Amino acid sequence: MPQQKRQVAKITNTHELNTGKYFQREGFEPNFLLTPEGKRLSRARIVATVVDRFINDDETYGSITLDDGNDTTQVKFFNELELMEGFEEGDIIEVVGKVREYQGQIYLDGEILTHTNPEAELLHQLRYKKTQEEWSTIHETVKQLKESGKDQEEINKEMAGKLNENEVDALLQSFGETFTQAETEEDRENLEREVLQAVENLDEGDGADYADIINEIDEPEDQLEETINNLLSDGTCYEPQPGKIKKL
Questions:
Q1: What is a GO molecular function of this protein (predicted)?
Q2: The total number of structural domains that make up the chain
């Protein structure tokens, strides 16, 4: 059986994690987050402050929420809660983990956690800024090569020694993608409340019409569809007839 090559943990921050688009791959190719700048992140390295810590009752799942001054992200643990031991709210920590996605939320599957200090956090931010500046130059070069009419094979040759073929592929892919800020838990809860209010306002007895809900709320239809499906799945709403939604 072929061995999957271990991915390098790339320096990143919460904003970059929360603005990327996640891609699930098949076979032995690793899943990855495609950032708006065209970087592929399969494993990430982040330094931030612990602002929340959670372990479920049967101790099969835990999470640590991190804030680096840009945004927040979660580090999750599944049956390996010993990795969380010794880390409390207010601690500054360095985390290495696999980039994962669940229900539209990007998180890190924690692998390595270490205590650090404000100086290390500042150094991490400076290193991230430097890598972004270097990447911006590469991004612009590849964009110019593409606009000049060169195909991917020609761009691979031009960028040999600076980028591998996967990195070129990611950059080219990013030019055709639309990126939006990843939803937070608060965003999802706010949208659910908005949908429920619309259902109540539009329901004249036999349920609110799906199309009317879409027209009522100024949000992308795919997000509204996902929210409505979640409300149906958890039993908050039901369908009295096709195309109609009613609150229980």
A1: nucleic acid binding
A2: 2
